[in-house]
Amino acid sequence: MSTSATTPEETAATPEATIAAARERIDAIDDRIIGLIQERTAVSAVVQQTRISAGGRRVSLSREMEILGHYREALGKPGTSLAMTLLELCRGRV
Predict the structure, then answer these.
(1) CA atoms of 74 and 87, how far apart (whole Å)
(2) Has this prediction a pTM greater than 0.85?
């Protein structure tokens, strides 16, 4: 019994066709990720503006630590770097 994740159509395809199809999927996934980051940035701006309007600070370090921990738990050490980049994109440099 095979545990392969390929479909019968992918098995019959040439390596070049399989690679091309996989790259198309990667490009589509990347487009979705970029869209989600843009959406997250917009939501983060609302949080920041609301916090500032209420007399608070622009950045909540305790919240950022929660986010870093969440990414680290889900993705390991590289998740921390990814989360740091994401936080920087969403809030700008502190």
Answers:
(1) 16
(2) no
